[in-house]
Specification:
single chain; 313 residues; alpha+beta; six-stranded antiparallel β-sheet; 12 helices; 6 strands; 44% helix
Length: 313
């Protein structure tokens, strides 16, 4: 990934072809039309309705060739680790709202699942589940420039790779080489479990702000490697010069476990493994404490949502 200039483009180009060659649900058609209208009104390139499409190539911009759009990078990582089928399974063309499986106002459910899997690994003699997590952070104002998408890859030794890029700022390849002396690994994107929890603490703090302060800017920089204050000074975009308002607050956290890897090479750019292969690669839900916990958590989230709706009546 770090040395392959075409990695993200190579992994995501087939996704766009798959996306438009498949039958689209009625709900998917509706959502696509809504997206196309929004994109045309706002006159901005989101990389397609699912973010799979890389930005246009500028041969004078090496980072642009590598791809800096965060959603495209996340799609590429999912396709590489989990296969094209998983990389497109929440596409709006399939009737999805484009959100991942879990969405909330904080990182609580993700923390619970991480802790459960980490403790399982410790009990298993330090042999940890190899998981690919897709994550996103968003707000009410889609044009604010604060939303982000990234991946976390759980390693068998109990460490985690935080993988990301940021549109117009840096590519995945550049991020993979970023050094950080405060991390045990010496790299910004390779974290211990404790270091990852500190990151999630920072993210929760950023989701509770009432205004953009130096602390908020430092938290955003620590998480996503972008100095928003400096970006405002250097950018010619009127969007980046807008005053911070509550609709800019990062208020929705989404995540899911895309797969357990490694995935056989032949499945990365085409369909799913056979049922037999999938059984061997997945713990399954029945009898697995962490998976059962997440099902219960979904019901609790639904109860909370229904409670919030009832309070509005």
């Amino acid at each position: 990934m770090a040395n392959n200039v075409e990695f993200v483009r190579t992994m995501t180009e087939p996704l766009h072809r798959i996306q438009h060659s498949e039958d689209t649900t009625n709900e998917g058609k509706k959502r696509r039309k809504e997206f196309e209208l929004f994109e045309s009104i706002e006159k901005v390139d989101f990389g397609g309705e699912d973010g799979h499409v890389a930005e246009h190539t500028d041969l004078m911009d090496l980072e642009g060739i590598r791809v800096t759009r965060c959603t495209t990078t996340r799609s590429a990582i999912t396709a590489y680790m989990c296969g094209a089928e998983k990389a497109t399974n929440v596409d709006v063309g399939r009737g999805s709202d484009g959100k991942l499986q879990n969405h909330s106002s904080n990182t609580s459910s993700f923390r619970k699942y991480l802790r459960c899997r980490y403790e399982q690994g410790v009990e298993n003699g330090g042999n940890h589940r190899r998981s690919v997590f897709r994550l996103g952070i968003g707000n009410k104002d889609n044009m604010s420039g604060y939303a982000h998408a990234f991946s976390i890859i759980a390693q068998p030794d109990g460490s985690y790779h935080w993988l990301q890029s940021f549109i117009g700022n840096y590519s995945l390849a550049t991020w993979l080489k970023k050094k950080d002396g405060s991390k045990l690994s010496g790299l910004a994107g390779v974290l211990t479990y404790a270091e990852l929890i500190v990151k999630l603490d920072t993210l929760d703090r950023l989701m509770m702000i009432d205004g953009w302060t130096n602390e908020s800017n430092n938290d955003y920089l620590d998480l996503f490697n972008v100095d928003k204050n400096l970006e405002k000074v250097n950018s010619r975009s009127t969007r980046n010069h807008r005053r911070w308002i509550p609709d800019h607050r990062l208020s929705v956290f989404t995540w899911d476990e895309a797969c357990e890897y490694p995935l056989p090479e032949e499945y990365r750019l085409k369909g799913e493994p056979s049922d037999e292969d999938e059984d061997e690669a997945d713990y399954g839900t029945y009898g697995d404490t962490c998976s059962e916990m997440m099902i219960l958590n979904h019901f609790n989230d639904l109860e909370d949502l229904l409670g919030d709706l009832s309070s509005l009546e």
